[in-house]
């Protein structure tokens, strides 16, 4: 899709930018944090709450939805949006990462990947073309190409082999995507993001980025980072990618979700983020706040009347005390998971909004420093 992404403002000192992505289900203002609905639900958060916290785009997963409930369900219901009663755009991960991290008996060939389901051991075979078809059945707004992910640290030979396959598969996915969507009304057409691999080898990352830029996909997903490498290696690899991508298309860093990592990546020009940690940690009683992480079960909160974060405007912070949340958590009440999940998601959505405003005002560096000074442990 041409002109589907507009950079509205650029920061003066850094590569941070404020943009807007037009999808077939509405606008997404970037930088954006996308809550993760792996199984067609953001864990412990209702659709009404997702709307209230300002969710503009959500993430789901081809591998999980294909295995359960299975694609015939989406065909019957007219797609995941109708099935889960969600209005806004959904980005689906191709499943490459889950095949590598969850499934058993994986065998990758040039044509695709054989694997056994992590649920019942049944055998399956994903190809780049099939994964495009699956995302058509799911009916998501942003599709991704099937990729080969390697665990870091990976040898150069393994990283190179994974990259070669990922490039070939992206080419095949693009051809199939174009055939499938060519005759669609442009306003209804989904978008295709290519996944950039290359492990921690900056020359491979640069090569992967250039290849994906030439392929003419609608956006770029940076995969295979934040999977075991050091922070320094992660940022060097990301920088190598960003230097070799065109500036007129959105860039999505897959699975990155700590506030400090998001600030650092937006500084390099990344636009989109998702992560399961804000909701997973919430279920373990950990809240993100503007003055750092907070563990709600800790003793000092027993009689604390203040909200989780005095600067937050979410339903949890507007209504409830740390003492109440601490009590709920210790009593094993599911409302604790619900409220802290809502808060953590709203916190990250508010952070990306602050980044957007700072990029527009040309004050990104100062805003990032102010955040880090208050957030990171002294
Ligand atoms: Zn809150």
In short, what is this structure?
The chain is of the alpha/beta class and 378 residues long. 43% of the residues lie in helices and 18% in strands.
Can you tell me the CATH superfamily of the largest domain? Queuine tRNA-ribosyltransferase-like
Widest beta sheet: strand line-up:
4-14-13-12-11-10
Major sheet: 6 strands, parallel
The chain-level mean pLDDT equals 96
User: In the CATH hierarchy, what is the class of the largest domain?
Assistant: Alpha Beta
- Radius of gyration, CA atoms, in whole angstroms: 20 Å
Which shape, going by the Cα principal axes?
Answer: globular
* Total domains: 2
Q: Give the strand content.
A: 15-25%
Which class of secondary structure composition applies to the elements? Answer: alpha/beta
Instruction: Examine the coordinates and then state which fold CATH places here, giving the name of the CATH topology of the largest domain.
Output: TIM Barrel
Number of strands: 16
Determine the oligomeric state from the structure: single chain
Distance between the termini: 46 Å
Q: What is the level-2 CATH architecture name of the largest domain?
A: Alpha-Beta Barrel
Give the count of helical stretches: 15
Hetero groups in this structure are: zinc ion
Helix content: 40-55%
| Parts with pLDDT < 50 across at least 5 consecutive residues | none
């Amino acid at each position: 899709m041409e002109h589907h992404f507009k950079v509205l403002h650029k920061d003066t000192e850094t590569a941070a930018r404020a943009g807007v992505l037009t999808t077939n289900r509405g606008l997404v203002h970037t930088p954006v944090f996308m809550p993760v609905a792996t199984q067609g639900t953001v864990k412990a958060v209702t659709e009404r709450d997702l709307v209230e916290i300002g969710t503009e785009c959500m993430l789901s997963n081809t591998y999980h939805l294909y295995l359960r409930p299975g694609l015939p369900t989406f065909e019957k219901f007219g797609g995941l949006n109708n099935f889960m009663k969600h209005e806004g755009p959904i980005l689906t991960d191709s499943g490459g990462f889950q095949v590598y991290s969850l499934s058993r008996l994986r065998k990758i060939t040039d044509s695709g990947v054989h694997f056994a389901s992590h649920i019942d051991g049944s055998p399956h075979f994903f190809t780049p073309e099939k994964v495009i078809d699956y995302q058509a059945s799911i009916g998501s707004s942003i599709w991704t190409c099937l990729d080969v992910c390697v665990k870091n640290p990976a040898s150069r030979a393994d990283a190179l082999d994974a990259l070669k396959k990922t490039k070939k598969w992206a080419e095949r996915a693009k051809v199939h995507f174009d055939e499938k969507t060519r005759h669609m009304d442009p306003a209804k057409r989904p978008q295709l993001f290519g996944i950039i691999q290359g492990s921690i080898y900056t020359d491979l990352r640069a090569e992967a980025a250039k290849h994906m830029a030439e392929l003419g996909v609608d956006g770029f997903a940076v995969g295979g980072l934040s999977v075991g490498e050091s922070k320094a290696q992660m940022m060097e690899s990301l920088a190598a990618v960003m230097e070799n991508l065109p500036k007129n298309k959105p860039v999505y860093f897959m699975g990155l979700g700590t506030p400090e990592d998001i600030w650092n990546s937006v500084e390099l020009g990344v636009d989109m983020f998702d992560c399961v940690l804000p909701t997973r940690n919430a279920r373990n009683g950990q809240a993100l706040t503007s003055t750092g992480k907070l563990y709600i079960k800790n003793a000092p909160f027993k009689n604390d009347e203040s909200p989780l974060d005095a600067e937050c405007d979410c339903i949890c912070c507007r209504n409830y005390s740390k003492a109440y949340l601490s009590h709920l958590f210790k009593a094993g009440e599911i409302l604790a998971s619900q409220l802290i999940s809502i808060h953590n998601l709203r916190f990250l959505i508010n952070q990306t909004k602050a980044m957007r405003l700072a990029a527009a005002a040309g004050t990104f560096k100062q805003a990032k420093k102010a955040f880090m000074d208050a957030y990171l442990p002294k």
